[in-house]
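We modelled the chain as a single entity of 281 amino acids. Its sequence is:
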Amino acid sequence: MIYFRFPPNFPKHLYPIGLLRQLIATFNFFDHISFRNARLNINGGQSKLIEYRNKYKKKKCIILANGPSLTQSIYDELDKSAFILGCNGIGNIIDLNKRPLDFYFTEDIDQVVVRRNELNKVKSLEKFCALHNSFAFNSKNFKKFYAPVRKHMIPHDEYEPSFSKDFAGNVHLGYTIVYIMLQFAYFAGFNEVEIYGLNHDYGKLPDHFPPGKITIDKNNISLVRECHGSKDYYKVGDVIGIPFSKNQEKAFQLAKNIFESDNRTIINKTINSKLNIFKFE
């Protein structure tokens, strides 16, 4: 069963089309019997994700978080032979016209609503969103993944992370989209992962707001702008999350353990990162 809700920042006049989109996407995602082109078909979008299992075995990927250290010059100098994974508002930081992403990911419901009019414009060879995002925009060009968010809705101080080795089956949340990209990288077989832009530094925001959602206004937007690689990453009226940093760290530690147990590496190449879990280079 999929958990689904309309977030407060989603326009109410779009509820009918949003519900229709969600129902259609859910039907198309899970396996079912149908007739297509006069042939019996039982595979939904979830089964098709299996094609990524170990598809990139022994290859290298680069994950881009969107912290303030991520710049165009860093992007332009990335290893040309590596596959690049980006997320959320990456298009507001990096010009992707010369070199599109290989994979783009988004999951957070409020983040998706904020960016619903730009998601289809992101330059990426392949795009992924959570199944529960389908209501917010025309996602026909996005592959869906299943993230059971109800499991994530336990008290935050009781959170213990899980790591999925089967991206086609389900994906676990870790308070950051980077954790989802790490699960995809593992499933796809990448044996070396480099991360840029993972500053793990939220400036003065945690001094003013507890972890959770806030609406950006003229009084806090200057604090928000310190946390990302572009002053245009968010605007007044957008809803954002103040991170549960300790829970992110729990998730990242588990990811490190899983990768290393399989003789794979995660390298943090972020300038001035405050995350001390992954190996630095």
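As a brief sanity check on the tokenised model: The chain has nine helices and twelve strands. The two ends are 42 Å apart (CA to CA).
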